[in-house]
């Protein structure tokens, strides 16, 4: 001890007898973080990153410029990282548009730049396209039409609003025109309708929309189109199928099953079948009717075709923006899925880069005031508005609130009767009413070119539902890209928002979406 005191005294004497300085030791990890911050932000430098933003945050340090690249294995700093805490309420971030036009309208490479005429479509169909004022084909149409013209069955997947309806209708109608059906005698027509083409859709609203497009294409070609929807007595089904020589039939699963059971309809002469909006059709509520419809069609290998044993099998086209898991297993019971062509666009399962998307963390009690303020700020000339809810009861309750505030609107949800639903969406499409409050019934396939604002009053349950809802704006034919505002309330909502934010920062597709398309075909027993 004496030696140490002596050494200390000598040291003080050497420095002028000054008291020793206190040493503060900073942990190594903290030093690293401070050094990183010092490098990221120098004195006088702006908090907001320079250049145009890909993601704009309420906290500027979490904004991401377009030029910044996040590596595949890198974990980006997320705005939504702490959103499960109650103090995060009021926070938000916004995905900014990175391009003006929809990916479906992007100019193709030279080898794929063919027009509808260069694809070899029948003159009658080209005339119909001119009447519809349809110009050059979209990405999914350039991809699908040549393959379907060759008679291949296919899984056709493309982002919402990219023109999938024309992508499958044009080649399939072309095949009917190239090989017209023989005239039926009156006795055959009285027995049951026997269409050559069948399009199965999940809702009566979508059946009416696709039917209108099909009728416009078939009119110059002289083909007859008929729609079949349920909700009425058996006599109603009979009347819908009464038209002679129906070439193309569009229907909902329940109505088609009832018509098959009552022998108003036969699928023995079917040459092609389309399952549109596949993820909805494979829902539990539609599974039994879909399986019954497939069982009536001449799909099984070895069965005689419409024109005899040598006739090719019925061409099956499964269409959607997202495909459910287990699709191959179900179809594999009736047809060889291994022979299907897989057609998918490059933008599939990606967030639309031309649509502004805002996510707001809110308490449940603050959602209604926020919605009313959004509707108040939305200009009358700003296009139509769709408000999505997760349940029919929320749609009805929200409708009563809008009535109290004198906001004119219409409601659409699955628990409404067929009579009540008739014409609701048509009036919204025509512009008679500019606000639609609905469930996910209106998120699949419907043409909403006039919509410029989508509000997720309830955050969707799945990433697939989010993609479909976002697809109501920025569609092919829309005048403006539009915007989407999502209210994030529950802890489980935050889990989905984190996945969306991560995909946006990394510029990748949403996770877990590709497995249903790339799943292997079922093994033969």
Question: Outline of this structure?
Answer:
The chain has a nine-stranded mixed β-sheet, sandwiched between helices. Strands 6-7-5-8-9-4-10 form a seven-stranded parallel β-sheet. It has helices at 2-14, 28-40, 123-131, 139-149, 164-178, 186-191, 204-218, 234-240, 253-261, 278-281, 284-296, 327-331, 367-377, 392-404, 418-421, 424-430, 463-470, 491-506, 515-518, and strands spanning 53-57, 64-65, 92-95, 154-157, 197-200, 225-228, 248-251, 272-275, 315-320, 341-344, 356-361, 384-388, 410-412, 435-438, 451-456, 483-488.
Overview of this structure, please?
The chain has 525 residues and is of the alpha/beta class. It has 2 domains: 55-102 and 352-506, P-loop containing nucleotide triphosphate hydrolases (Rossmann fold, 3-Layer(aba) Sandwich), CATH 3.40.50.300; 106-347, Rossmann fold (3-Layer(aba) Sandwich), CATH 3.40.50.300. 35% of the residues lie in helices and 14% in strands. The protein is built from 19 helices and 16 strands. The chain has a 9-stranded mixed sheet, with helices on both faces. A 7-stranded parallel sheet has the order 6-7-5-8-9-4-10.
């Amino acid at each position: 001890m004496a030696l140490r005191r002596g050494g200390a005294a000598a040291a003080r004497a050497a420095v002028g007898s000054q008291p020793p300085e206190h040493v503060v030791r900073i942990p190594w990890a903290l030093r690293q973080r401070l050094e990183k911050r010092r490098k990221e932000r120098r004195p006088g430098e702006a908090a907001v990153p320079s250049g145009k933003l890909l993601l704009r945050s309420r906290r500027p340090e979490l904004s991401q410029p377009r030029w910044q690249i996040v590596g595949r294995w890198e974990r980006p700093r997320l705005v939504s990282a702490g959103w499960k805490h109650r103090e995060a309420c009021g926070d938000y971030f916004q995905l900014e548009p990175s391009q003006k036009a929809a990916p479906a309208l992007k100019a193709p490479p030279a080898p794929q730049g063919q027009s509808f005429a260069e694809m070899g479509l029948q003159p009658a169909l080209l005339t119909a396209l001119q009447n519809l004022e349809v110009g050059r084909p979209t990405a999914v149409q350039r991809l699908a039409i040549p393959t379907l013209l060759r008679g291949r069955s296919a899984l056709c997947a493309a982002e919402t609003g990219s023109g999938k309806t024309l992508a499958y209708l044009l080649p399939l109608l072309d095949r009917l025109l190239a090989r017209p059906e023989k005239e039926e005698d009156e006795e055959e027509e009285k027995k049951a309708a026997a269409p050559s083409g069948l399009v199965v859709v999940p809702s009566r609203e979508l059946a009416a929309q696709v039917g209108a497009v099909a009728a416009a294409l078939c009119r110059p070609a002289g083909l007859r189109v008929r729609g079949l929807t349920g909700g009425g007595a058996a006599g109603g089904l009979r009347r819908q199928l009464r038209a002679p020589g129906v070439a193309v039939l569009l229907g909902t699963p329940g109505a088609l099953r009832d018509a098959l059971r009552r022998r108003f309809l036969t699928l023995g002469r079917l040459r092609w079948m389309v399952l549109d909006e596949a993820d909805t059709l494979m829902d539990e509520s539609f599974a039994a009717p879909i399986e019954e419809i497939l069982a009536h069609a001449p799909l099984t290998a070895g069965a005689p075709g419409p024109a005899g044993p040598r006739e090719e099998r019925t061409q099956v086209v499964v269409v959607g923006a997202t495909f459910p898991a287990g699709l191959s297993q179900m179809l594999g019971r009736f047809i060889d899925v291994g022979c299907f062509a897989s057609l998918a666009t490059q933008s599939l399962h990606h967030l639309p880069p031309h649509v502004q998307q805002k996510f707001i963390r809110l308490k449940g009690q603050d959602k209604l005031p926020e919605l009313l303020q959004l509707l108040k700020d939305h200009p009358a000339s700003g296009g139509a508005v769709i408000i999505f809810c997760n349940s029919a009861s929320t749609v009805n309750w929200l409708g009563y609130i809008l009535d109290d505030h004198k906001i004119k609107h219409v409601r659409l949800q699955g628990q409404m009767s067929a009579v009540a639903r008739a014409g609701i969406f048509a009036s919204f499409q025509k512009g008679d009413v500019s606000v639609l409050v609905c469930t996910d019934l209106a998120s699949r396939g419907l043409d909403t070119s006039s919509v410029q604002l989508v509000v997720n009053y309830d955050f969707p349950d799945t990433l697939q539902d989010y993609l479909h809802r976002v697809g109501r704006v920025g569609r092919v034919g829309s005048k403006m890209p539009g915007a989407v505002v999502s209210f994030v309330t529950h802890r489980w909502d935050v889990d989905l928002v984190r996945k969306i934010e991560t995909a946006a920062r990394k510029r990748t597709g949403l996770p877990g979406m590709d497995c249903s398309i790339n799943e292997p075909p079922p093994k033969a027993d």
